[in-house]
């Protein structure tokens, strides 16, 4: 029995850790209850919407509070106000929120429906039938056609291509648009597209359970009594797109929520702003304040009733439920009064606050949607949520994807150097100076070439003239570009198209094509090109494939008996392998390299070597032996490659531009000046990410050091981080000043004892140049008095570091034991770049910062691989780009270009935060002023819960009389205009420290409201206490006093808001002055037409001069302290916004020509030499596929089928790759003009 039980336990444990699938057997697979392919992201159904939505809404403290208040108002014995005063606003809030939630969920339903109803083709009983995606199940065999999305995670069974190959694009998963290759088992490939055979396929798969690892799959296929190992190269994931493959069939392994794409999506979280959280805290405090006032009034009422009230029973009889015994009766009355005052004073936390907040956010969302300056083509910015607008003004960390977000992912051939001659610059014939290339610059005409591409642009006619005069060196240069690559060609509708595994290769082959050196086709043993219309066929003998350690690739070709090796790679790698001599050409080419790299271009060196037959045959034999060896294969192959890739002749250099999206560099520079830290999280390779970092100004020459974390084991990563922390400590100790102008070095923390050890950072060398950016000269404390922001000061003086982290190292960095050390290092870095990260790692990095820094985070991306990061951040921004709409659908805001993020944050975000804070300050101010009048009156009415104001006035005070002016502030007001908000990014910083609205500001608003309530109550009370009109009529009645206090309260609130409105529009005038006029009209209509109890009171009061003197006195006393405070601080300690506002006003009275001209940052800036983005953007393995014939549609002669086995990818990229000397620093004047940093921030230089 024990053995049987243990066997069952073991079998159950095994099943829990693996998945068993039988092809074409739904009945067998159904017993395991695997997830279907139906996707559901919506929250509600028609039946569940009302109960679920109400349950969610009453989880908000304020809604629950008002529900309890409504219950109290239903009890006649304690309520002095009708329940309608609470029912109407509560229903309005719940209704508005429910409509918004319903709209959002309907959009999710529509999105789900579109995905679930996509069409796929499945094999059913030997026939191909059309099925919806949602009907596909685990174990089904489905067909996919070219350019179609894959419906589920499938095991590749058969394809249209030879050797069972197919090509996929994975941009939805990892952001990479280069093609990836997958290959099915040869045993299943023989089934072809025979639906009968595929319908009879009964293989059984045992594999891993669903997980989020995109690059890993383990399993076994058992078929016809044979077992076959399965790995990731045989799996195609949901979200991939089939490319260059007519069709393929696959067996569904994971479906729906179990697919790796959905496993990486992350869960949707309810997002609340920091102001929401602060409001919840404040409401709790206000409720306690309310209860304390009620408690005080209860005690006071009990005392008054026992001492005085018992003697007035004839005039003020007690209720029947109150005992006649004095002490007992007073106690019961006091207890009832407690609840009565809870109702009367409840307006200190009015429900209209939440209605107003929702309305303001809703309108602010439309202002974002309607902003014409954030339009691109036909795409506009969209606020997909209405609850997070003000948090856009408090962002401290931005986590950005790279491909498609910062870059266009378009490479262009920009410049080159051939045998010491530089090409690419356009020279002015008259002055001899370089002309900047713009969109208006006329491109060369390549129409003489029938294979040219109309979109190709090159501007230097000297290179084209060199080709046309058949210059031998230029021909050699372009022949190398047309021959040394792994690009595949395809004739599509008579047009030659290329498919490259990296955009760099595509750009180089395309450049050769346009200059007349056209790559036509390849086979495993030949390459055919067309040179100026003449066909040339080369015999392909060997491809020495790229890998991340070699940083180069080579091809060995034979034509007309001549053997030649062509090689391209990183400059430092190629230069080490050149033959001696030609020092002048090498030196000039090195200068060109420095110049190109300094402009942010991705450089690549080209070289060649002629070989003799005897040497090559001997080398080829040893290469075969090394490729087939089992021990030390990688090391032996590298040694063999070294033998032939030497004594080469330098041909030239290429310079490719990875086009950034427009305005990226300026946007990043401005956001950094605004105090926002930007992290780039990309699935791309390390060197590519570093190159983009320099192009977009995240990495600059002003940094002291760039740390590279690339170790594979926990211990090595720990060692690197410790070393970096020590380096930072040393630099901060001995050089605490701002590091602008310090020469850059790189390190990656290895402790190797070799000569090229990268265990130490490059020592900082002081440059003579000052910083290129003027910084605001007054301190943060001076800018925004009252804020404690010591961190900002530290940030300005900390030495500059950047850190680049590889994905396999990040796994260890996120380990709980290394987390704190990792944070200590990255928090000292101005820029952080994480490369080769998975979608889930992106989300984990965001969560790490949220958890440990308590900072507001924003994630921005454009692909499905960014969805989990977007959902994890406080605010998610999707870019509606080239990689589908998944990121947009998961986002809170969508924009068309990264550059619009600057306007979204610095303008709309800052305005939304400023407006919301202004609104909240005024709202609490006016409500404390309104509510506390009842409290002061309690001392004169025996604490009987009698109200000062008319019940109708109490009901509509917040709804009509004072709502529109504060809404005008919350929607339209702006302290500075949009232009200056961008020109002075430091205006954004108060949001980081909650300076505009916090507990201190709330307390100040409450105190101001308390002061106004004292003025409003006691001055009219004193005025009308024994007042008599000139005609002898008494003016000291209760209703007249109440009408006067109510009218002056509206006037004071209107005056306060009018004085504090900085930006007047027609709507402001209508809403502010219109509300004041509406009060008097509404009061007259209610009292005279409807027949209110206070009929004639206000009219009588306004006919006497007492009222107008009292109103002027109350307004003056209420507003004067605020004005005095403001004038004092604007004069003595002006904030940055005060100074900018002054400049703004003075500019309005000057002529337009006298306005200050502020420089805009350059999109390109000189930097240290970072070479060969190609070498890192490329991917190993394609050479092996080409020469093995597997990648070809036609199998070649077997004589040339040479195996080319390449070792594992070594991610250990030492600092030697970056060891080239930095370009010479430009003179100070040039540096200041070409700086890519943000505009001048020193307001002392502006003539105010």
From TrEMBL:
PROSITE patterns reported for this sequence: ATPASE_E1_E2
Membrane topology: Multi-pass membrane protein
Catalytic activity: ATP + H2O + phospholipidSide 1 = ADP + phosphate + phospholipidSide 2
InterPro entries membership: ATPase_P-typ_cyto_dom_N, ATPase_P-typ_P_site, ATPase_P-typ_TM_dom_sf, ATPase_P-typ_transduc_dom_A_sf, HAD-like_sf, HAD_sf, P-type_ATPase_IV, P-type_ATPase_N
Segments forming domain P-type ATPase N-terminal: 21-87
Binding site residues for ATP: 401-403, 505, 546, 568, 602, 682-684, 836, 842, 865-866
GO CC annotations on file: plasma membrane; trans-Golgi network
Chain intervals for the UniProt region annotation (Disordered): 1-20, 745-770, 1216-1248
Cofactor annotation: Mg(2+)
GO MF: ATP binding; ATP hydrolysis activity; ATPase-coupled intramembrane lipid transporter activity; magnesium ion binding
Positions of Mg(2+) binding: 401, 403, 862, 866
EC number: 7.6.2.1
Location of this chain's protein in the cell: Membrane
Gene3D superfamilies assigned to the protein according to its UniProt record, in alphabetical order: Calcium-transporting ATPase, cytoplasmic domain N, Calcium-transporting ATPase, cytoplasmic transduction domain A, HAD superfamily/HAD-like
Positions of the P-type ATPase C-terminal domain: 888-1134
Keywords, in A-Z order: ATP-binding, Magnesium, Membrane, Metal-binding, Nucleotide-binding, Translocase, Transmembrane, Transmembrane helix
Active site per the UniProt annotation: 401
Biased composition (Polar residues): 756-769, 1226-1236
NCBIfam families: ATPase-Plipid, ATPase_P-type
Record protein name field: Phospholipid-transporting ATPase
Organism name: Zophobas morio
